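Folding problem:
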Amino acid sequence: MAGRPPLRIGQHGRVSRTYIGGGVWVARCRYRDSDGVTRIVERRGPADDYDKHGKLAEDALIEAIAGRRAPSDFVDTIGPETRIMMLVERHLERVEEDGRSPATLGTYRFAADKLKKFLGGVRVREASTARLDAALRSMRTAHGATMAKQSKTILRGGLQLAVMANVISSNPVRDVDPIKPNAQPKGATALSADELRNVLAGVQASEYCTNRDLADPITLFIATGLRRSELLALRWSEFDPEAATLTIGAKLVRAKGHGLQRLDGAKSAAGLRTISIPVFAVEMLTARRGRTYVGEQPMIFPSTAGTWRDPNNFGKQWRTVREVLGVPEVTSHSFRKTVVTLIDDEGLSVRIAADQIGHAKVSMTQDRYMARGRLHTEVAELLDRTINDG
């Protein structure tokens, strides 16, 4: 005769209730723990003369069983009727447990909230490649290609949990067509040497820029090609006036529920770098450090309250003044693109440009045969000539 079929891991058997007197019941059941061993679990209910059938004891038992389940046991509860968005939410919880940055998590959760409009009621058994492809195309139409790509990423992670649970044999997101933008973005505008000098002269002469502390940050943008989040995260301890260098190793991010944070580290080793800066930038920073208040703060570009300066607020202030300066298309990223263009025009290697702005890859050959992370004084000298030779 065939024996009793084994319980699935995380599953309990039939609950029995036993009255032991004094208004007290005991509830018991078999439960298969995450280590695969089946054990007897029991709980007593409170003394209650009105509990005639042991319901309180069973409630206590079920609650205890829920507490025994390891986080990974969630996979064992997945079935064909599980909603896809529930899997996406669990995937995001796992991503958070892995230590992903609050900014990235905030971006993914925002995308997941929008994705519910297209897949909120769809279950795992209904997750065909065609249906998912249609939903992601709708996301692209409604919210743009970037959010559609983010949605595809979290959708793939969520449905991978169904694969792990052996509910589906393969991840249907894998065969969804690549998401392409509706139109190629224009991107940041690179400036010529003359335009760069004019912008620098304009911000240094602008009363608006002086009053809102824009001139010095824009000067350092021109001198380095840093990302806005990197530049505003700089501390005085990372500036070496004698060596004329800045050490870049952090960024400012704002995430829902976490506020503005300075995050140390970078996505790649290339993002953690020390760069040489031109003389005009050293002079600006040296003078700035000697000023009351700003030179006394740990950060180079503090807010008026002595906290980290919000990159978004900085961007709004720059958008306001760039119209007045006659450069409405110039974003903070334009200076980054300009530095790379000047390096290329000078005939310097792409590896030098990548090291300067913190890009990891230029080509397999350059990654393998050219040294990375070197200090390139050529860039500082180039920028000094660009600013001073006009």
Q: What stands out?
A: The domain at 78-175 is CATH 1.10.150.130 (DNA polymerase; domain 1). The two ends are 96 Å apart (CA to CA).
